[in-house]
TrEMBL record:
<dbReference type="InterPro" id="IPR050706">
    <property type="entry name" value="Cyclic-di-GMP_PDE-like"/>
</dbReference>
<dbReference type="InterPro" id="IPR035919">
    <property type="entry name" value="EAL_sf"/>
</dbReference>
<feature type="domain" description="EAL">
    <location>
        <begin position="124"/>
        <end position="384"/>
    </location>
</feature>
<dbReference type="Pfam" id="PF00563">
    <property type="entry name" value="EAL"/>
</dbReference>
<dbReference type="InterPro" id="IPR043128">
    <property type="entry name" value="Rev_trsase/Diguanyl_cyclase"/>
</dbReference>
<protein>
    <submittedName>
        <fullName>Diguanylate cyclase/phosphodiesterase (GGDEF &amp; EAL domains) with PAS/PAC sensor(S)</fullName>
    </submittedName>
</protein>
<dbReference type="InterPro" id="IPR000160">
    <property type="entry name" value="GGDEF_dom"/>
</dbReference>
<dbReference type="Pfam" id="PF00990">
    <property type="entry name" value="GGDEF"/>
</dbReference>
<feature type="domain" description="GGDEF">
    <location>
        <begin position="1"/>
        <end position="115"/>
    </location>
</feature>
<dbReference type="InterPro" id="IPR001633">
    <property type="entry name" value="EAL_dom"/>
</dbReference>
<dbReference type="InterPro" id="IPR029787">
    <property type="entry name" value="Nucleotide_cyclase"/>
</dbReference>
<dbReference type="GO" id="GO:0071111">
    <property type="term" value="F:cyclic-guanylate-specific phosphodiesterase activity"/>
</dbReference>
Length: 390
């Protein structure tokens, strides 16, 4: 919602914090969106966690920002000074490690520091350093895997989704779950995402030229964008540049954004998406059905494709309730004129049921796991349709 509104929220949060404090308690803003509360004579762990609960309750009613209701989800780390003192620095480090633990457990909760957390926090710092270093020359350690999207009815490959991996020198091949959240937290997702965009377009361009030679129809390339990238003013320019350098047409590029990223509703996101769509780039809502958002945003947002989350797809052939949810989601997509893609299709039963209820596209281990470029290239150019192994 912009910097000024963000500052306004911080002021409001500070005010609420102050009103939750009791005499002898001190609050300070540490930087960014981090606050510290110092409680003397906290009454041990019980007293300290009670105080954390009190603060969380104080922050839970919605904030009114320019007439809009906004909720915050505080993550609280609790650290207790050892008998006899300890150092302020040590106490803060422990509170920080506990706060990360609270975030990792799903935010909007508190965690009390335990010695094991120090190692986790050191590990995070080390990983962040590694990430910065690796981004100095992203071609060296980052890889893109590609997972086909197929026509559910006949298994013909319609496109690919690019999924990032990190060939970490000490830890081996890391899936995005192990570093994308950290990249988002630190802002490093911006340079990483830029590399992903360029590399996915480059690969799509290479396959495109071979496909033309083989007389095959064009395939789409889907790239994941994080909320942070969507807020970058240079995004549209970066997309134009990646397309230009690769020779891929805008209508063969799909940008995937999760509903939670969109619901944040930063004022620049919608015009940016509109701008990209005017060029012909397509926009997909990723993991639809996995979040808690309202449906009303679907009407307002410039999108083309709805990717139904695995939680909606799983078991729809076995359970009437699951089937009802999946068919309603498909009906919604149809009514809004959006293309539907079923994600995480794992079984023949799921695939057959999806075809029966009229879902056009699917993606999942049933057809193919995400694969390195060489292997995926065989699908891009090889005999179609895919014959599932299961
Ligand atoms: P996503 O965009 O929803 O990608 C689909 C994820 O589902 C992939 O996990 C894929 O391997 C997995 N998947 C595919 N088929 C099946 C199936 O049949 N069953 C099950 N259980 N899972 C299946 P992956 O590659 O680990 O990626 C996880 C998430 O990380 C992605 O979810 C996406 O949100 C994020 N991510 C991946 N690459 C990027 C990237 O370049 N940029 C950003 N911002 N996020 C990325
Ligand atoms: Mg995706
Ligand atoms: Mg998804």
């Amino acid at each position: 919602m912009g910097h000024a509104t963000g500052d306004g929220l911080l002021v409001e949060v500070a005010g609420r914090l102050r009103s939750c404090l009791e005499p002898g308690e001190t609050a300070a803003r540490f930087g960014g969106d981090e606050f510290a509360v110092l409680i003397e004579d906290a009454g041990g762990e019980t007293g300290a966690t009670e105080a954390a609960g009190r603060i969380a309750r104080g922050l839970s009613p919605p904030f009114d920002l320019d007439g809009r209701e906004v909720f915050v989800t505080p993550s609280v780390g609790v650290a207790l000074a050892p008998p006899g003192g300890g150092t302020p620095d040590g106490l803060l480090r422990e509170a920080d490690a506990a706060m990360y633990e609270a975030k990792a457990r799903g935010r909007d909760r508190h965690a009390v520091f335990r010695p094991g957390m120090r190692a986790a926090s050191a590990g995070r710092l080390e990983l962040e350093g590694d990430l910065r270093r690796a981004l100095g020359d992203p071609d060296r350690e980052f890889r893109l895997f590609y997972q086909p999207q197929v026509r559910v009815g006949d298994g013909v490959v319609a496109g690919f989704e690019a999924l990032v991996r990190w060939e970490h020198p000490g830890r081996g091949l890391l899936p995005p779950g192990e570093f994308v959240p950290l990249a988002e937290e630190t802002g490093l997702i911006v340079p990483l995402g830029l590399w992903v965009l360029r590399e996915a377009c480059r690969q799509a361009g290479e396959w495109r030229r071979l496909q033309i030679g083989a007389g095959r129809p064009p395939l789409t390339m889907s790239v994941n964008l994080s909320a942070r990238q969507l807020r970058e003013p240079g995004l549209a320019g970066a997309v134009a540049e990646a397309l230009g350098a690769s020779g891929v047409g805008p209508d063969d590029l799909v940008l995937e954004i999760t509903e939670t990223a969109l619901v944040g509703d930063s004022p620049s996101a919608v015009p940016t998406l509109q701008h990209l769509r005017e060029w012909g780039v397509r926009i997909a809502i990723d993991d639809f059905g996995a979040g808690y958002s309202s449906l009303s945003y679907l009407k307002r947002l410039p999108v083309d494709q709805l990717k139904l989350d695995r939680s909606i797809v799983a078991g729809l052939d076995l359970d009437q309730t699951d089937l009802a949810v999946a068919t309603s989601a498909l009906a919604l997509a149809r009514a809004l004129g959006l293309e539907a893609v079923a994600e995480g299709v794992e079984t023949r039963g799921e695939a057959e049921k999806l075809a029966e209820v009229g879902c056009e596209l699917g993606q999942g281990f049933y057809w193919q796991k995400p694969a390195p470029p060489k292997e995926a290239g065989l699908l891009a150019l090889g005999p179609c349709p895919i014959h599932p192994t299961s």
